[in-house]
Structures are given as structure tokens and as C-alpha cells.
Amino acid sequence: MKILDQTHDQFVDAFRRNHGGGTHTGTAVYRQVMKHGQTAFDGLDAVARRPGLAGELASGLALSPGRLVHRVSDGGVVKFVTRLADDLDIESVVIPMFRRYTLCVSSQVGCRMGCRFCRTGKMGLLRNLTAAEIVGQVFTARHQLGVDVRNVVFMGMGEPLDNPDNLIQALRVLVDQRGMDIARRYITVSTVGLTAGIDRLARFDGGPVNLAVSLNAPNDDIRSRLMPVNRAISMSALRDTLQAYPLAKKSALFVEYVLIRGVNDRKEDATALARYLAPMKVKLNLIPCNPAPGSDLQPPSVAAYERFHDWLVAEGVFVRRRGEKGGRIMAACGQLGGRGGFRNG
Length: 345
What we know:
- It is found in: Cytoplasm.
- GO terms for molecular function: 4 iron, 4 sulfur cluster binding; metal ion binding; RNA methyltransferase activity.
- By secondary structure, the chain is α/β, with parallel strands linked by helices.
- It has 2 domains: 8-60, no CATH class; 67-329, Aldolase class I (TIM Barrel, Alpha-Beta Barrel), CATH 3.20.20.70.
- It has helices spanning 8-19, 23-34, 45-48, 53-60, 131-143, 164-175, 195-202, 220-226, 235-243, 267-277, 302-314; strands at residues 67-74, 77-83, 89-97, 100-104, 108-111, 124-128, 149-154, 187-191, 210-214, 253-259, 282-288, 319-321.
- The strands form 2 sheets. A 10-stranded mixed beta sheet has the order 1-2-3-4-7-8-9-10-11-12, covered by helices on one side.
- Helix 10 (267-277) links the parallel strand 10 (253-259) and strand 11.
- The radius of gyration is 21 Å and the shape is elongated.
- The two termini are 31 Å apart.
- Residues 326-332 and 339-345 have low confidence and may be disordered.
């Protein structure tokens, strides 16, 4: 009987079909696993009152977050590698943010979007992650690494909206207050701009979550050279979809702009970007390109980064500086997929 890819109600229904009884026992088991990370049930009164049930659960409960096989840290950032049942690896990143922790989760093994600045894209797509494998990263961070994860961002390996069924089910599990209990306002799904997926996410039955768009260019010409998806979905079509996305109260769209030396860092680029964003309520994350082995794309100088930032501010854009975190352990934006994502051996 599965659990990591089940909401409380789904699990309790399955529990009653398999083991009988009322909802109380199933609820107690669900809470023991999802909230406390425990798989020993002998101490639960609801289980102890039914002879043999603890043994049935020990042998029949499918808890498969994957095996933690590697971790590395730098400056508070922790990257950990999970080995999945089919011997593929994925990477996740814990990022300290003031008094809370953000977990960057993967949604696929590899990625087929092919963005030039992203190391994961060079792997191609090996397969989608299941909802249990997505939720399992939060489970591992909380219950094996002991991290009090409050924020979850889908900015790891893969394109989340290229795996919509498992993404949506994972979101249902993550926001369930009787389980992982992560508030929707603390969840962000990042996409290269798959408009059909954005439309589907807009209809998520758990309510709107934050949406981040990896834009990285001021016009179609530059974006198509950096991101193949733009050849199928133009920036104009993307903006139409973004303007229809239901934002939570007091929220805004997040736009990610990877600044690359000599590619998208001119003053005219800043001006065109500001004009593109003007009709929308956005917060722009300005990210210096993180160099990857073998890439010809380079980060801007500190002075060039500051100039571009100031140009955007002068145009009235809300800009947030994104300092480099985890670059030395290949855990920064666009760097995942070095150790993870390959078959063991």
C-alpha cells in the first residue's frame, strides 16, 4: 500500500479497503509517517489494539523515498543525491533563507528542454519522477537530514510542467495539512514557459501556488537561441498565458533572468525586458550565469551585473538580486545533473 504519493483521504480510503476499521487508525498511521517520519507502529495505540496490524504494515506499506547516497555542503547550502529504485540518481538542494529553509526539488531525471545555460538539459530526459519520488525529496530532507523545510521550489532537475500529472498529485500531498502541511504560499513551480502546463496549474484544485518563469531574454531572437521552447511558444503567447494566471492575494509572478555576458546584458536588453514585463505584476530575480564545465556562456562582471540591475530599477522593475549560493558544489541555478541523473555503475 502506497503512502508518499497519497493525500490523507486517499490513504485512509486505501487503508480501510486493505485493513478495515474506521478512519482513526489510518489517520494515525498517515500522521506517523508523513509528519514524524516513523515507520514503527507498535507504539501507536490505534495499531496496538489490533493484533497483527503492525506486522501487516511493516510488510505491506510501500515507503520508497529513495536512498540517500551522497551529500555535500558549502556555506550552509546542502546538495543531496537520492538513488531511485531503478538505480537512477536525482539531486535536491537545501538552501538556508534567513530563519527558514527552502528545498529545491527535482521533477524529472534529466530534462528535454535543452536550455543552453542549464547543465541538466545536456542530459536529455531519462524519465519523469513519480509523485512519490517528488514528495520523497521533502521526506528525506525533513526526516533523514533533519531540516525544517518550510519552502518548496520546483527548480531542480527537470521541467515540472512537462510532468504535469505527477506534479499536480505531489502538490496535493505537499499541501495536505494532515501530512506534509506546506502552505501554498510557500510553494513555487518554475517553468520555461509551457503554456498548456501553466493553464493546467492555474486550475489546481488545491488553489493557486506561486509561479516562476525562466525568461532570460528580452526578445524572441535571443530567447530562441538560449531556449528552444521559444521556437514553439513565443514570448507574446507566453505573456498572454501569464496574465491569465490566478495570483494569490498580495502575490506576484516571479520572473527569472539569467544574466549572460555579451548575450542579454545590454542597456537595450534591459529596456526591452522592462517593456515586456510592464503589463504584469512581477518580481524579477536577476541571476548571474553560473558557469558549467564545457559551456561557452559566462557570467557578467560584478560591474556589469550592477549596471543591468540599475537600468531595470530605473525602468520601474521590481528586481531582487540573487547572490550565488552553492556554486562551488555545483548546486546553484543551472548546475544540477553532474553526479545525479546517471545510472549507478
